[in-house]
């Protein structure tokens, strides 16, 4: 018999300012919920005014996963990679050795306000200095699982990992499963998760119960789940129509997190070296002071 995980910590994601005119609800990475290995940060963002966004900024040592909920966002980096993420699409970027990156939401007449999620995931130490890599899926290429059939009340967008016989083509560096669970009506499913992995839920709409506990959890909360050896997954019950949330699980890393803004390494010396690399434009940061994105400087 399957045993469900339970909620062991609940944190409200409070709206704050970030970037240039952007608004974010940050839970993981906030003072109330620092790093929960391998997860470093979770932002639920929206950009209320044209020109708002996240202009040129560096990264080293982590994966950034951008999943658009509404609208579209442009991205561009110093390695020559650029593109567009539309609602329901994802970019899984491993900003490992070094990259300068910009993300600017797209505005225009008749376009919805851009809203999305960005998750930062720590990378295993052995991958922190390999070349940057990208995996991108447009909305129609993200596979969907229907735990109770296509006419049932729930569907699961499998951004990475496996759900009810459906597997994503995304292959992260380090283990990570990422699902967008959508209930049109109240109902219950059980989602298998790798035993011992760190996992959490972030509630987007409606209300959800976890396991056998009677508490319903409303939108904008991060729910950290237990990870006992006998817990093979999590039972999820939507208690309202149109309930949506993400469920994410990751393999814990047995390493220290030493973070300075967008630089995530495993000790002080590595971060100090990264700062020097950036300041002096070397060891991968050669374009740090000469490259400018087109999307952030129109």
Descriptive terms for the model:
1 helix; 25 strands; mainly beta; seven-stranded antiparallel sheet
Number of strands: 25
Provide the gyration radius in Å: 19 Å
What is the helix fraction of residues, given as a range?
under 10%
How large is the count of helical segments?
1
Structural class: mainly beta
Taken in chain order, the helices and strands follow as EEEEEEEEEEEEEEEEEEEEEEEEEH
Largest beta-sheet details:
7 strands, antiparallel
What general outline do the C-alpha atoms trace? globular
Strand content: over 45%
Residue runs with pLDDT of under 50 for 5 or more positions? none
Task: Give the termini separation.
Answer: 58 Å
Q: Round the mean pLDDT to the nearest integer and report it.
A: 92
């Amino acid at each position: 018999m399957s045993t469900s995980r339970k909620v062991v910590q609940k944190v409200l994601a409070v709206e704050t300012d970030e970037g240039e005119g952007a608004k974010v609800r940050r839970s993981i990475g906030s003072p109330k919920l620092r790093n929960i290995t391998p997860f470093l940060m979770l932002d639920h963002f929206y950009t209320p005014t044209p020109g708002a966004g996240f202009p040129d900024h560096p990264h080293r040592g982590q994966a950034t996963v951008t999943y658009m909920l509404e609208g579209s966002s442009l991205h561009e980096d110093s390695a020559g990679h650029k593109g567009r993420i539309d609602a329901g699409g994802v970019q899984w970027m491993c900003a490992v050795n070094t990259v300068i990156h910009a993300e600017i939401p797209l505005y225009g007449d008749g376009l919805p306000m851009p809203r999305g999620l960005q998750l930062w995931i720590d990378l295993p130490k052995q991958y922190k200095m390999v070349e940057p890599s990208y995996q991108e899926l447009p909305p129609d290429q993200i596979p969907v699982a229907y735990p109770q059939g296509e006419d049932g009340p729930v569907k699961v967008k499998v951004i990475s990992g496996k759900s009810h016989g459906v597997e994503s083509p995304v292959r992260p560096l380090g283990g990570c499963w990422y699902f967008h669970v959508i209930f049109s009506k109240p109902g219950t499913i059980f989602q298998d998760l790798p035993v011992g992995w760190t996992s959490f839920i972030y509630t987007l709409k409606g209300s959800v119960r976890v396991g056998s506990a009677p508490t319903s959890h409303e939108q904008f909360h991060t729910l950290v789940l237990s990870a006992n050896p006998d817990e093979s997954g999590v039972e999820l019950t939507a208690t309202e129509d149109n309930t949506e949330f993400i469920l994410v699980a990751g393999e814990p890393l047995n390493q220290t997190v030493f973070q300075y803004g967008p630089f995530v390494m495993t000790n002080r010396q590595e971060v100090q070296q990264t700062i020097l690399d950036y300041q002096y434009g070397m060891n991968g940061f050669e374009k740090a002071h000469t490259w400018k994105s087109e999307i952030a400087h129109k």
